TrEMBL record:
Domain of life of the native organism: Bacteria
EC number: 5.6.2.4
Catalytic activity line of the entry: ATP + H2O = ADP + phosphate + H(+); Couples ATP hydrolysis with the unwinding of duplex DNA by translocating in the 3'-5' direction
Name used for this protein in its record: ATP-dependent DNA helicase RecG
PROSITE patterns, A to Z: HELICASE_ATP_BIND_1 (PS51192), HELICASE_CTER (PS51194)
Any one GO MF annotation of this record: 3'-5' DNA helicase activity
Domain Helicase ATP-binding per the UniProt entry, residue ranges: 282-445
GO biological process, one term: DNA recombination
Pfam families to which the protein is assigned, alphabetical: DEAD (PF00270), Helicase_C (PF00271), RecG_dom3_C (PF19833), RecG_wedge (PF17191)
SUPFAM superfamilies: Nucleic acid-binding proteins (SSF50249), P-loop containing nucleoside triphosphate hydrolases (SSF52540)
Keyword annotations: ATP-binding, DNA damage, DNA recombination, DNA repair, DNA-binding, Helicase, Hydrolase, Isomerase, Nucleotide-binding
Function, as annotated: Plays a critical role in recombination and DNA repair. Helps process Holliday junction intermediates to mature products by catalyzing branch migration. Has replication fork regression activity, unwinds stalled or blocked replication forks to make a HJ that can be resolved. Has a DNA unwinding activity characteristic of a DNA helicase with 3'-5' polarity.
Domain Helicase C-terminal: 464-629
């Protein structure tokens, strides 16, 4: 945008001194640019006018032109209402107001014609409309408007009579004077290729659409632009990094072949082989690897991680893996130790609770290179942790790793940045991966190891608990073990802990002959370990726990997962939890317990879980239901804050935007070509514009 758009809102016709502070404080609109980019979030179709005779109950909305015949006030005090009779040549309708009666009385003089809009109802056999929107009908021109923009507003604004019409009016004033100043932000080439409308036209049509078709074009154009610049920046980061940071070249693979042929406990899936090839290609390319590895729960990411570590170790480098929690670090350590031992490789664990004495030795071996694999939590990022030669760092993450943290990792090798492999704990939708991790290359394990029996998921209401207990009893008699999980959500921690304890007691009563374990976040690590170990050794049959068992825990003999208050869990969390069973040879079950009354979204979550075991499908539904900002892993990340694009719906546009960005930057990395000057200029402008950008890059 240009200087014109930096002007303060107070300079705009219609922004009165009364309105100005409201627009500033309630909507954070300060400049012309802010206003014009304040897009409607939906539109009301006002293209159609009804005859009163055509209006019937059950219509979502109706719009008509009617003449006031008469009105009367009925009742007194706060029960008073004003009822007006309105007609056109086809029939009559009653309009009713409970509030603002004084103002209505002054406005609706009998004989005047108005355009009315609202939801029709029937009351005592009469067609009625309560609190309709109204506008004095003066000329036919008024009926030519079509899609009315609806802006998101606050209660405070409405109280001061700033509604969507007022905002649309301001937009109209602004558009009237700003047209010559709206710069095109996409190159002619792109506009032609995707048959986009101009920026000017798009801004006009997004606020004051002439028709549904125009509105569609305006959205398409603005979404493309937003996603294109988002992808352009991410792709550029990726390319810059590839070109400026060399990577250690790992070419010797003897160790790996040995492991593959002598120690691999099973045949790798084709998907595992494919991603290993992709990773290997990076690790011998001479450029630093920055790759995201996606795979569903149980798809076998751990073995892939280990095989990649072998490649680093074979080439005289060290490897580390960082997990989001102690429990998961533990699990990784135990799992990897088995392989490491078989291969004669040294491995150690570092977490917040590693004792000082152990640390000293560990640091020493890390610095002199005796220690080859380090498994741990974020403690690995701390300063005293110095590697001799860190070659590969794997981040098994649940939450997004901040930029600062990633930078810290890079510094763990002063000579040459380590290769970085980020593994997601649960799948995320493709669109989200592209935006959140657009600066990384992406590998996907899209296949589960053969021979797994799909987990059966069942929904039961709380009232059927006895039946569920009966089922649990039968499974225990078959020799299986069971998880019962309770939600623990921080805000209501005390209450939740009580739920857990109550649940524990009722299960103790129901299963007097079984041994129970309990696990929750408030327990000391040693106690947690103890309980976990008992369960693993099958000394206990039922594990009553909070979501601390969510990540990583692997007990193949546990084949039933009962999730209490399942309505309180998010989809990805439910899927993660379910992934704790189905790890052995037996048929596994996941039972979702809920109360009887469920909201629409909750129903959809439960239905989705019952219907599919596919984590990628589940992630798509999650994105649809929650929007990108609330999905796990995306919190605190501004990267998904979009003004107009919708990551749940715009995957096609995003795909084109990314492909176009890659194509342009590959052909013209510095954006020096004449045809790309528009793009270059736009990037420079956006850089000045703090919004959105600073958080991401
Ligand atoms: P995740 O991707 O969830 O981290 P894991 O790496 O924990 O999955 O693997 C889940 C289980 O599947 C482990 O017990 C692992 O040993 C096993 N596994 C991994 N790959 C294969 C394979 N190709 N064939 C059979 N079992 C496998
Ligand atoms: Mg894992």
């Amino acid at each position: 945008m240009s200087h014109f758009f930096e002007q303060e809102l107070s300079k705009l016709k219609g922004v009165t001194p009364q309105r100005l502070p409201l627009l500033q404080n309630e909507l954070r609109l300060f400049t012309f640019a802010d206003l014009i980019q304040y897009y409607p979030f939906r539109y009301e179709d006002r293209t159609h006018f009804h005859k009163i005779r055509e209006i019937h109950e059950g219509m979502e909305h109706a719009q008509f032109i009617g003449r006031i015949r008469s009105y009367e006030k009925i009742g007194v005090g706060h029960k008073q209402r004003l009822v007006a009779e309105v007609s056109d040549e086809s029939g009559r309708i009653e309009l009713v107001w409970f509030k603002g009666i004084q103002w209505i009385e002054k406005t609706i003089k009998p004989g005047l014609e108005f355009i009315f809009y609202g939801k029709p109802t029937f009351f005592n056999g009469n067609l009625q409309m309560t609190h309709p929107e109204m506008e004095l009908f003066k000329s036919q021109e008024q009926t030519e408007k079509s899609f009315q923009p609806i802006y998101s507003l606050t209660e405070k604004l409405r109280k001061k009579y700033i509604d969507s019409k007022v905002i649309a009016g301001l937009q109209k004033n602004l558009l009237a004077i700003s047209f010559p100043y709206i710069r095109e932000t996409l190159s002619e080439e792109i506009i032609q290729r995707f048959k986009l409308i101009s920026k000017q036209e798009a801004l006009y049509q997004i606020h004051l659409p002439a028709s549904e078709a125009w509105l569609h074009q305006a959205k398409r154009r603005l979404k493309f632009e937003e996603l294109f610049y988002n992808q352009l920046r991410l792709v550029k980061h990726n390319l810059i990094r590839k070109n400026s940071y060399p990577g250690q070249i790992f070419s010797s693979a003897a160790l790996l072949k040995n492991f593959y042929h002598e120690h691999l406990p099973f045949e790798l899936t084709d998907a595992q082989k494919k991603v290993i090839r992709e990773i290997f290609n990076d690790m011998k390319s001479g450029q630093q690897m920055n790759r995201l590895l996606q795979g569903d729960v149980g798809s076998g990411k751990t073995i892939v991680a280990f095989i990649c570590m072998l490649l680093a170790i074979d080439n005289k480098a060290q490897a580390c893996i960082i997990a989001p929690t102690e429990i998961l670090a533990d699990q990784h350590f135990k799992g990897l130790s088995v392989f490491a031992e078989a291969m004669g490789i040294t491995i150690a664990k570092l977490t917040g609770s590693t004792k000082k004495k152990d640390r000293i030795e560990l640091f020493e071996n890390l610095a002199n290179g005796k220690l080859q694999i380090l498994v741990g939590t974020h403690a690995i990022l701390e300063d005293p942790v110095v590697f001799k030669n860190l070659g590969l760092c794997i981040i098994d993450e649940q939450h997004r790793f901040g930029v600062a943290q990633r930078a810290k990792l890079w510094e763990k090798n002063q000579n040459i940045h380590p290769h970085i492999l980020v593994m997601t704990a649960t799948p995320i939708p493709r669109t989200l991966a592209m935006t959140l991790y657009g600066d990384l290359d992406i590998s996907v394990i899209d296949q589960l190891p053969a021979g797994r029996k799909p987990i059966q998921t069942i929904h039961r209401f709380d009232a059927h608990r006895l039946q569920v207990f009966g089922f649990m009893q039968r499974e225990i008699e078959k020799g299986r073990q069971i998880y019962v999980v309770y939600p623990l959500i921080e805000e209501s921690e005390k209450m939740d802990l009580k739920d857990l304890m109550d649940g524990y007691e009722s299960i103790s009563r129901a299963f007097p002959n079984q041994h129970l374990s309990i696990l929750h976040g408030k327990m000391k690590p040693a106690d947690k370990d103890f309980e976990m170990a008992r369960f693993l050794k099958q000394e206990t049959q039922i594990m009553v726990a909070t979501t601390v068992i969510e990540v990583g825990v692997n007990v193949p003999n546990a084949s039933v997962m009962v999730i209490e208050n399942a309505e309180r869990f998010g989809l990805s969390q439910l899927h993660q939890l379910r992934g704790r069973v189905g790890r052995g040879a037996d048929q596994s079950y996941c039972i979702l317990m809920t109360k009887y009354e469920l909201g629409v979204d909750t129903k959809k979550r439960i239905e989705t879980m019952v219907k599919t075991n596919n984590g990628f499908e589940i992630a798509e539904v999650d994105l649809e239901l929650r929007g990108p900002g609330d999905m796990s892993g995306t919190r605190q990340s501004g990267a998904v804050d979009m003004m107009i694009a919708d990551l749940a719906k715009d995957s096609e546009i995003l795909k084109f935007a990314r492909e176009t960005a890659i194509e342009i930057l590959t052909a013209d990395p510095e954006l020096k070509e004449e045809k790309n000057q528009v793009i270059r200029q736009q990037i420079a402008l956006q850089r000045k514009d703090q919004t959105n950008w600073a958080q991401i890059s």
